[in-house]
Amino acid sequence: MTDSTQPTRPSVATRQAERAQAQAKHESDRAATPQQEEAVAAHQVDPEVARHEEEMLKLGANQQGEGRLP
């Protein structure tokens, strides 16, 4: 058994494998069912929700100060 309270350092091989996995193309494991496709086609987007999403995207893109990623 290992002591999980002590920090560990990933090996070079582990970092390379993680990088390769993160950059790999990700796809769904199956196609959507006909019922799922119908539900998407029938879905109506609330304009107020769409407006709010756009506002939040702009707010995040223009974020300044603490919490901003380089």
- Report the major sheet: none
- Shape call: flat
SS-based structural class? mainly alpha
> Could you tell me the strand content as a percent range?
under 5%
Q: How many extended strands?
A: 0
| Rg from Cα | 21 Å
| Uncertain residue ranges | none
Q: Helical percent range?
A: 40-55%
Rounded to the nearest angstrom, the distance between the terminal CA atoms is 39 Å
Please write the string of helix (H) and strand (E) elements. Answer: HHH
Whole-number average pLDDT?
A: 87
Number of helices: 3
Helix/strand layout:
Elements: H1 12-23, H2 34-42, H3 47-61
Walk me through the structure.
The chain has 70 residues and is an all-alpha fold. It has a domain at 32-62. Helix content is 51%, strand content 0%. The protein is built from three helices and no strands. The protein has helices spanning 12-23, 34-42, 47-61. The chain is flat and about 50 Å long. The mean pLDDT is 87.
Features:
0% strand; flat; mainly alpha; 70 residues; single chain
Short description:
This protein is mainly α. It has helices at 12-23, 34-42, 47-61.
